[in-house]
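SUBJECT: protein chain
CONTENTS: sequence, structure tokens:
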Amino acid sequence: MKITPSNVASSDCLFCRIVAGDISANRVYEDEFCIGFPDINPQAPTHLLIIPKQHISSIAKAEAEHAALLGSLMSATTKIARDENLSKGYRIVVNTGDDGGQTVNHLHLHLLGGRHMNWPPG
């Protein structure tokens, strides 16, 4: 998937600005479809965000045409988890909408690990 101006949001999207390089982030992972970087408010010893380079405001806005992109996000997340040595386990979270706790309107996965995760999470 080629990222073009038509599928990248305007400069008011924080994560699109990170993708564009306008805002720096410690990129621990990058491929053609996504980037991974530490969350600025970590909730676990390892807390990384994995975001698509293409702007999709939330998982609720994903369409069938995004299937390959969504698969690449999951694949990247598992690769990052291996690279981060999270062999004892980890959690992948996708917050969606206001009630779901989404604070940036750009689809992103939270990779949390490095400690025991409790259930229920919320």
About this structure: The chain is about 20% helix and 20% strand. The two ends are 35 Å apart (CA to CA). The chain has one domain: 5-113. Strands lie at 29-30, 34-38, 46-52, 90-93, 109-113.
